Amino acid sequence: MKILIVDDEELTRNGLIETIDWKNLGIFSVLQAEDGLIGLNIAKEEKPDIVLCDVRMPRMNGITMVEKLEKILPNSAFIFMSGYSDKEYLKAAIHLKAVNYVEKPLNPDEVVSSIKKARENVLQNIKIEKNELLYSRETFSKFAEALTHPHDEKKELLDSLCQELEIKITHNTYFSTFILKTNQVQLSESNIELFITTLEKFLAYMNMKVYYVCKELKYHVFHIVSNKNPSEQKLKQIGEFLCKNISFTTEFFVSIGESFRGIQKAYLSYESSMSVIRKSFFFETGSFLMPKDKYEHHQNQSCKYIADNLISSFSESILAKNKENCFKILDQLYSSLFERDDLLEYEAKELYYKFFMTLFDCRYQMKLTGEYQNENTIKMLEDCFCLATLHEKLESETKKLFETASSSESENSVIFLIKDYIHLHYTDENLSVRDISEQVFLSPAYVCTYFKNETGVTINQYITDFRMKKAKKLLKDPRNKIADISAKVGYSNGNYFSKSFKKYTGLSPSEYREKTLE
After folding, report:
1. Residue pair 155/144 in contact by the 8 Å Cβ criterion
2. Which residues contact 274 (CB under 8 A, 6 or more apart)?
């Protein structure tokens, strides 16, 4: 907290500053002024939480100063310092919200007691303001949410909220809905609060208001309300402002629906904006999309047509180790989908899934082992925010395959099948040599001997090594809990996992994480 001491006697100011243990009172900034006029100017700029001021001062007395500051600092507390002869003078200012006064000559204990009381008042004021703001935001959010439904369904609620919130809606009120889609499941309240406040200030210059609600955790809906039909230029300015001021997420899209007049049609603007944002997957992140943005594709090919014409060529190029042609095919894939407005997101992801499975099949045919994402492909597809991200992952996996193919010869069939089975089943805590031997139609004893002779390590050593590499990779992401990582790499007993990990790396899982995140 900050405190401002205003007194024309320098000795009094310095005495207070040196005598009182301010940090113990929760005050870490002590300001001072020699009269009411200077104190008023300092308070306007520094906004102290507590003002301790003398009553009688030259140029501007303490009571006049506090009368002005009450309007500027509604949550601050004020304490008067006065002599005995000032009591009648203070009665004339009883309407002021000064929490206390202390008599001169000052007793440090009385000053401390008054400051403690003032601090409690300030904290209470802040708490009340936050609660009021939270209630107000929640109520406005209910209003914004109701606007996303047909008017007939929410008429009574809308009428009630308009009355409670004193919202003035006429038949000439226009609604234009913007939607921000982010790659984060949930944004912090502080980020959203700051964002809305910034937007409100921007819209105030255009005589517009905004009502906000979050839907499905990732769609942030902004109903822009104005008394005039907003021009396309103004709407573009708002869209550009939204895009420029989104600093809390790396990937996002912004859409706008068509503008409609009257609260009865407000939901149509929302539906229009939502139909646009649902096509955003096919555009570059950070794009501002409008209903009129229609992109005609040269061939307008269906996903089935693309799959039938490209996947077989993709597979042939991989098996022929023709890297250049392979990436040309991937370029064709991307260009055939980019900025398409006639496809749905799931159609594109299904198509890419087929390409990932083609990679997996080719790897199998080429008898190549390595770090592949086959077991997590579906989750990866679900998490991809846009086409570009999805395509980058496909290109990355394709590149890995060619790197593996060029750096190693194909393994013999038995070793490949053993490793492949381990890679697919390492999460199973019951994975055993017997399971592996049944997969390759050999006895457990022969499989152990053969694997050790060919690779130089035992099957159990290879399983442990593979699991630990996976664990190290998962530990680098702080979002993964150590207990969950244990289960993900085939250890139901967390303590046993920790001991095995420390034996393997020399560090406990938590120590390894701290070291890698430094």
Report:
1. no
2. 179, 219, 255, 257
Cβ neighbors of 262 (< 8 A, separation 6 or more) are: 171, 173, 175
Instruction: Name residue 287's amino acid.
Output: S
The range of the structural domain enclosing residue 460 comes to: 413-517
Structure tokens at 312: 């077989």
Give the integer Cα–Cα distance in Å for 308 and 305.
5
Looking at 95-109, 186-200, 322-336, 390-404, which range is the least confident one?
95-109
Q: Could you say which of 289, 315, 343 is where a domain stops? A: 289
Distance CA 103, CA 91 (A): 14
pLDDT tens by residue, 71-125: 888 888 898 888 756 666 665 555 565 557 788 888 888 889 889 988 888 888 7
Report yes or no on 187 lying in a domain. Answer: yes
**Is the domain of 436 the same as that of 367?**
no
Q: What is the pTM of this model?
A: 0.61
In a domain, 142, yes or no: no
**Can you tell me the distance from the alpha carbon of 96 to that of 206, in angstroms, rounded to the nearest whole number?**
37
CA dist 364 → 108, 322, 340 (Å):
83, 17, 33
For residues 269 and 258, the answer to whether their CB atoms sit within 8 Å is yes
Domain count, the chain: 4
**Structure confidence at residue 280 as a pLDDT band (50, 70, 90):** very high
- The C-alpha atoms of residue 205 and residue 236 are separated, in whole angstroms, by 15
Determine the Cα–Cα distance for residues 394 and 388; give it in Å rounded to an integer. Answer: 10
Same domain for 258 and 175, yes or no, is: yes
| Residues counted in the chain | 518
Dihedral (CA of 475, 479, 480, 482) sign? positive
